[in-house]
Amino acid sequence: MAAPDAIGYFKSVRHLTEAALEEYALGRGSRPQRERVEEHVERCAECRERLQVEIGIAALVKTAAAKIARPGSRARRKNSAKP
Ligand SMILES: [Zn+2]
Fold it and tell me: What is the largest CA-CA distance in the chain?
């Protein structure tokens, strides 16, 4: 039942925003921005996990975009499910 101010030091730990993680995952953002993300995830497991998810999504989006861009590569969809 601590007052919010009692854990005030948490306020100084700013987590990365969704946008920052997304930009990073997509390979965008300026160098300082990317460095900030890297520095933060080095110390913050929470944001590291979030970044992994974003990178996973970004990879999926890229794969999907590539498939759409090259209709010839529409391979067998039925039996290619992941284990
Ligand atoms: Zn964080």
Answer: 61
CA atoms within 13 A on the CB side of 10: 5
Task: Assess if residue 51 is contained within a domain.
Answer: yes
What's the CA-to-centroid distance between 79 and ligand 1, angstroms? 39
Gap from CA of 60 to ligand 1 centroid (Å): 24
CA–centroid distance, 14 to ligand 1, in Å, is: 7
Q: Is 78 part of a structural domain of the chain?
A: no
Q: For the chain, which ranges sit under pLDDT 50? A: 2-3, 6-11
Domain extent for 53:
15-69
pTM (global) more than 0.85? no
